[in-house]
Amino acid sequence: MSQESLEDVLDAQVLTTIRCGRWFAEEWRARGLRPAGSTGRLMPIALSRFENGQVFDIADQSVIDDMGQIIRRTLNGMRDGYGDLAMCVDTNGHILFDDNLHKIRQLMEMWKSFTIALQNLRDTQAAIRARDSLRGYLR
What's the pLDDT tens digit per position in 99-110? Predict the structure, then answer.
């Protein structure tokens, strides 16, 4: 039985993160949410990068965080407290009879998948750095 190396895990996570970022950006554009302020100015640039597979720029993290809050507030505005709930639990099994609410809920789940994929990738990168550092220390 062979064990996957951290590099193999990293390769798979890179692909997953790129896909999640692209799918999220496409769904965001389809929903037409328009934030104001600096997020509104930076978001089109970030979305274009995500659609092109460029999801690893740490400078985009504040935009990604803001997008999650925008989705949460939008859901809360559609159904009191639902955005807060959707931020904390998996809502994929929820049966919703409002098509627009359903679509924004899906967007929230895609945002969560994207942010989880990014965090998993960063954790694996940190594990590789720590492993390499320990190897140098133990020599």
Answer: 999 999 999 999
